[in-house]
Structures are given as structure tokens and as C-alpha cells.
Design a protein that fits this description.
Layout lengths: L3 H19 L1 E3 H6 L5 H14 L3 E3 L4 E3 L10 H12 L4 E6 L4 E7 L3 E6 L5 H8 L7 E5 L14 E7 L5 E4 L7
Parallel strand pairs: 6-7, 7-8
Antiparallel strand pairs: 1-3, 2-3, 4-5, 5-6, 8-9
Length: 178
């Protein structure tokens, strides 16, 4: 049987991996990452904050890997993490992607990429992704459903609009609800 210290060590390592991988996430995102252990994670976060191993920005409600990281927080990464959390129960592994991909994650059935397309950058992302041959399924975050009309990215499973509270709405090409 595992001791309490062994359990906390494993959970602590998982929590630290998430924060150091993504650098800045909302407090709520980190808690939802451990949906079965939310109360113990809150205690663990408090302990890690006291130890100075993670940091918290109360104005932006962000948990951070280093002091001052809130000023450089990546809104695209935060939005992508909300999308990944919608799939959390089926996620086997997740990590940061390499530009233009924000997050890569794997489920039992498939590989996914979450891509954040800032408004006005549609041509750049079209060029970067149009000729890539891959079997990966893509979830593309846009500012508004109308933005999808400007995008021509292959293998898009859905377009997403992420609200500040983490609510994700999914769309098909052209802004129609899916």
C-alpha cells in the first residue's frame, strides 16, 4: 500500500510537470486536470506555493512556473489547454507542440493537434499547414466562427471558440454549429 507521502510525491510531480510544460495556466485549469482529486490538489498547490516551487498571480488567476511569467502568458496556450481539457477523460498523454501547434495530445484512438490561429494570421497558418501530410486530427481555435472562412487547413476535426471562462464551442467550416 502506498503511503500518503508517496501519493503526494506522484501527484506533485504530475502537477509540476503540467505547470513547467505550459508555463502559465489558470488555477481552474490546473485543478480540472486532476478531476478526481481536486481537493487534494488544492492543498498540494498551496504547499508548492509556500515552498516557492510554483507561483500565483492573483490578478490574472494564473499558476506559473516562474515569477513574472504572467506578463508573458500565452493566451493561445491557455485557450488550447481548455480545449484539451474537454477531452481529458480520454487523453493518454499531452504536451506542448512545436509552432504552429500549441498542444499535441493522444487518446486511445488517435493523435490530435490543437492549433491557435490569432485573427489576422490566417494566411500564415494556411501556408504553414496546407501541405503537411498527416493523419493527425486537428482542433483549430479561432476568435469567431466567421474566421473559419479564411482558413484552408487540412484534417480539421473542428474549429473552436474558447470563452474566457473556459467554455468551448465547436464549429464546422463556415461558422455552422457542429
Amino acid at each position: 500500500m502506498k503511503t500518503r507521502e508517496e501519493i503526494y510525491r506522484q501527484e506533485g510531480a504530475s502537477l509540476l510537470r503540467i505547470i513547467t510544460t505550459y508555463h502559465a495556466l489558470t488555477y481552474e485549469q490546473v485543478i480540472r486536470s486532476f478531476y478526481k482529486k481536486q481537493d487534494s490538489m488544492k492543498r498540494l498547490i498551496r504547499n508548492l506555493l509556500k515552498q516557492g516551487r510554483i507561483y500565483y498571480d492573483p490578478d490574472k488567476n494564473l499558476l506559473l512556473d516562474c515569477p513574472g511569467a504572467a506578463e508573458k502568458a500565452d493566451e493561445g496556450m491557455i485557450a488550447a489547454y481548455w480545449v484539451m481539457l474537454d477531452f481529458k477523460k480520454t487523453v493518454v498523454y499531452h504536451t506542448c507542440g512545436e509552432f504552429p501547434v500549441a498542444i499535441n495530445f493522444f487518446s486511445c484512438e488517435a493523435e490530435y493537434e490543437i492549433i491557435y490561429v490569432p485573427e489576422g494570421k490566417e494566411i500564415l497558418f494556411n501556408r504553414l499547414l496546407e501541405k503537411q501530410t498527416t493523419d493527425v486530427k486537428r482542433l483549430v481555435i479561432v476568435s469567431t466562427p466567421d474566421q473559419t472562412r479564411k482558413l484552408h487547413i487540412p484534417h480539421v476535426l473542428a474549429y473552436c471558440v474558447v470563452a474566457l471562462d473556459g467554455t468551448v464551442n465547436y464549429y464546422q467550416k463556415g461558422g455552422d454549429d457542429s
